[in-house]
């Protein structure tokens, strides 16, 4: 059967990598974003604001996908607003599709805040015991992931398509202008340290420095999304998705430093805000970009230090169980140092870092 995908949030770290995977696998791919790039053929760009139902209906009037991949969110000032805005975007999508009853499957990407709580209550209270498992109950907190899931479940029941929910940990992969991008943020940080002689110090908490953790390569997530959307075992299930290995930052940090020709700074024993360290670096980055002929002089389109601080500053261990996916037949695996090194090499090849 011919497969046609609508990737919602195609300019983000998830959407970009997913669209590339789908194209490589022979899918017809529509890419929806507020401001999609127009030079990404054979991806068919669609421009619309998910909060503007009328405009969204007009944009999707002639689009009849077999599969929808929802990979978008908008950060709001409070979790109550996150819940309202982000659930509305999912609801509007299914209301705007001209033939939702023709859908075969819809996949939603969320994340580990399902287990850790929203940013305003991040890892507070008593978080669940690791490893995080899909059978764990929802937290007694407002969480826009829960609201998005509920909208998805209701639409699937109403229109008769299957669904899947995908919960990655921190996503490592290529994207520019993304709101949550640890890999590129660390590449910018390391590049600034190399240019200025500042020590390359791990900015996170002792729990993250010393404890076991994991991450999700965007390519692994893309493979997982395609698998769950096409395999019978992926239907109507929520899955964790990580690389498949675990590591400690005190082990990985020197490897990142070495790739950039740096010595890893001595860990001070406490978190040091990367957002504060990079807060005045906009002018410096423009100078670095000019001297090295880089493609992106705006540090804000590369680095999301606030998000890296949130993830690396967590006071709890974060390890994810993938047994459910493995038992269902997904065999993907990526060695975590390769996630970072491959990304750094691509950023340098594309002249995004010196």
UniProtKB/TrEMBL annotation:
Residue stretches making up the PRISE-like Rossmann-fold domain: 56-354
Gene3D superfamilies documented for this protein: NAD(P)-binding Rossmann-like Domain
Protein name: NAD-dependent dehydratase
Originating species: Neoasaia chiangmaiensis
Taxonomic path: Bacteria, Pseudomonadati, Pseudomonadota, Alphaproteobacteria, Acetobacterales
